[in-house]
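Hi, here's the filled form for the chain we discussed.

Project: internal
Contact: R.S.
Residues: 165
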Amino acid sequence: MIGPREGERIWERHIENCFPITTLFSRGASVADIGSGAGLPGIVIALARPDLKITLIEPLARRCEFLFEVIDELALEIEVIRGKSEALKGRYDYLTARAVAPLDRLIETSWHLLSPKGSLLAMKGESASAELAQTDLKKVKKSQLHEIKMADIPVSRVVELVKAG
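And the returned structure, exactly as it came back:
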């Protein structure tokens, strides 16, 4: 599910990168991970925060099959929905996205899935503040760039876009 050269650095490049976002959720919230792929960050969030209700959204059948295998192996209670976010219905307190799309496209394709006062949490790289500055925020009540530092993990950048309620 990841690139051929990524296996040897899966922990530090992919799994560790997903831990900091777990600090941003309110207890018991519903979370949908858009474009889950290999389950990053959705499965990591579920492992770190068992109090959350996690849904993984993935359009590709092969990736969904992989996600079902991992969920079964780890005995997790996670829903998997095969589809694209723009074609789905539902309401979630939080949406997460990691390496899915630019902020403008994430807003366009997934905003309808957020509950009132819900947050889109987009994991971004070093250019997060520049991307945020270039994003059309007319639908957004509040935006914030979180730079989260945990132990020996490099700084994680998460753009939070809050929907009006």
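Let me know if anything looks off before we file it.
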